[in-house]
Design goal:
Shape: globular
CATH architecture of the largest domain: 3-Layer(aba) Sandwich
CATH superfamily of the largest domain: LmbE-like
Number of domains: 2
Number of helices: 8
Number of strands: 22
Mean pLDDT: 85
CATH class of the largest domain: Alpha Beta
Oligomer: single chain
């Protein structure tokens, strides 16, 4: 990590936070710097943190109290942003369900199949200040809110969660932002061609470390992600900026009374961001020998077919190993004129009770809104394949096969709108409960 960012970038910055407090943990120092340099900065909070399980003791388990908690957390964000110099107009609350974003990204994309929150006891936003009133709890609504905000604000730089963040809401938020931006590019909006995307990490193994108040220490690149294709950059903060960030974290009282030692760990001498590149199936790098399992993606060409290999950066999952779940070892992606071919290798033996879910968000070659191909979910369970909840048989271009430690799927390109690019992710689950995920990654297909 040798690249340093000494000053703010662009004229308009937009910070996306999955929950109230992520905005300050990730970019509390940079927000101060933007304000002091009279640079426009806006914060968009995707959920209101209303599904908090470790909750303050004064809140009983009632629907109204979860919504009350959501409003309370909104006010904490407004107090913290006001302390750093932002007004209420500089903050947007989307109002989507806490602990529900990953479900909306994978299985509840369409308006006719909304997600139901067991906390707010509804399938739409119950908040009167949501960016879209009564926004339905579905992935396409989140993507549309992202698209609309980007069009209204036209940021030069976007801050968003890193795709390898271990929290499902952070993981999904990364996908939604990536999708909204690529949607606008696909529609021909040239303003978004050169937007800088800087990703931040909040939930990861031993990050930040050590935990506690360490204003003199710096955030280090997370060890288990250091071999990925992410280019890590840092922003150094002076002592005034560190102290203001530390005090602003204290404004989130519902959270600091539960996990103060963890939260204040982000008030350090720097802030850390990652640049995650897009991938291309028709470009390659020189590749020889056995894959390095600490890398994220390797591009290669094999027998004149482009090969994309995703390698799980966490190595073997401890839970997967103890319970003998088939944690991902690598994923390869190839294409020909008719099919997209995906193969997964596992560390452990694959069993029929384990579920494989492949999520594909394609962008067609049309160059307009109709060229956005929606969402395709391929679910493999008990040796059966389902496409968007409908069972499909082998044939008509589809082919799938499971081995003791592998799985392969062939998808007809025409069935996913013959895309020019797509966002791909894979989730492994047992009895409907996910235990491993690949990062959401943009793949260009030429």
């Amino acid at each position: 990590m040798d690249k340093r960012v000494e000053a703010t970038q662009g004229e308009r910055a937009l910070v996306f936070a999955p929950h109230n407090d992520d905005e300050i943990l990730a970019a509390g120092g940079l927000i101060q710097r933007y304000v002091e340099s009279d640079t426009q900065v806006k914060v968009a909070v995707v959920t209101n943190g209303d599904g908090q399980i470790r909750r303050p003791p004064f809140l009983p388990f009632l629907r109204a109290d979860f919504v009350k908690l959501g409003y309370k957390r909104q006010n904490e964000t407004l107090d913290a942003m006001d302390y750093l110099g932002l007004s209420e107009d500089d903050v947007e609350f989307f109002g989507y369900p806490d602990r529900g974003l990953s479900h909306m990204w994978t299985n509840h994309w369409d308006l006719n199949e909304p997600y139901y929150s067991k906390y707010t006891k509804t399938d739409h936003s119950p908040y009167d200040n949501s960016y879209t009133g009564e926004a339905p709890y579905c992935g396409s609504a989140v993507a549309e809110d992202v698209r609309r905000l980007l069009l209204e604000y036209k940021p030069d730089v976007i801050y968003l969660p890193h795709p390898n963040d271990s929290h499902p809401d952070h993981w999904a938020t990364n996908g939604f932002i990536l999708y909204g931006l690529e949607q606008l590019k696909n529609e021909g909006y040239d303003d978004f061609t050169d937007v800088t995307m800087l990703s931040y990490l909040v939930h990861s193994v031993r990050f930040p470390w050590p935990r506690g108040k360490y204003l003199e220490s710096s955030l280090s690149e997370p060890e288990h992600l250091e071999e990925l294709d992410t280019e890590w950059v840092e922003v150094e903060l002076d002592m005034k900026e560190r102290l203001r960030k530390f005090r602003a974290i204290g404004k989130y009282r519902t959270q600091t009374q539960l996990m103060r030692k963890y939260l204040i760990s982000f008030a350090r001498a720097n802030e850390l961001f990652g640049i995650v590149p897009s991938l291309s199936l028709n470009n390659s790098i020189e590749y020889e020998g056995k894959s390095n399992l600490s890398r994220d993606f390797i591009l290669n060409e094999q027998e004149d077919e482009p090969l994309l290999s995703y390698l799980n950066p966490k190595r073997r999952s401890r839970i997967a190993t103890l319970r003998r779940y088939p944690d991902m070892k690598s994923v390869s992606l190839t294409r020909n004129s008719e099919n997209l071919n995906l193969s997964i290798d596992f560390f452990n033996k694959y069993r029929p009770g384990n579920e494989i879910q492949i999520t594909v968000k394609p962008f067609s070659r049309d160059g307009n809104r109709s060229g956005v191909g929606g969402s395709h979910s391929f679910r493999f369970l008990k040796r059966r394949l389902y496409h968007n909840q409908s069972k499909i048989e082998k044939g008509n271009g589809y082919d799938f096969e499971s081995g003791s430690k592998s799985y392969g799927l062939s998808i007809p390109l025409e069935n996913i709108n013959d895309p020019s690019k797509l966002i791909l992710s894979i989730t492994l689950a047992r009895k409907g409960v996910p235990f491993a995920r690949s990062a959401n990654r943009l793949v260009k297909i030429h």
